[in-house]
Amino acid sequence: MKAFFQTRLKKHQKHMMRYMKYVLNDHFVLIMTFLLGGVGFYYSNWLKTLSTGYPLGGLLVLIIWIAALHIGRFASLAEPADQIFLLPKEKQMRSYLSAAFSYSCIFPFAALLLISAFTMPLVVVSTGNSFVTFFFYLLSLWGLKISHLEIERMNIFQDMQKARKNAYFLWIIFTFVVLAISIWLQPIFGTILSIMQIILFHKLCWQTMNVSLDWEKMIAEEQDRLHRIYQFINLFTDVPEIATKIKRRKYLDPLLDRIAFSQHNTYLYLYARRLLRGNEYSGLYLRLVILGGLLLYFVSEQWFALGIGILFIYLIGFQLLPLYQQFQFVPLTKLYPLKKEQKLTAIKKLLGLLLTFCAIVFAVIALFSLTQWSERLIVIIGYLVMVLFFVEGYLPYRIKKMNN
Question: Residues with Cβ < 8 Å from 322, sequence gap 6 or more?
Answer without folding.
Answer: 238
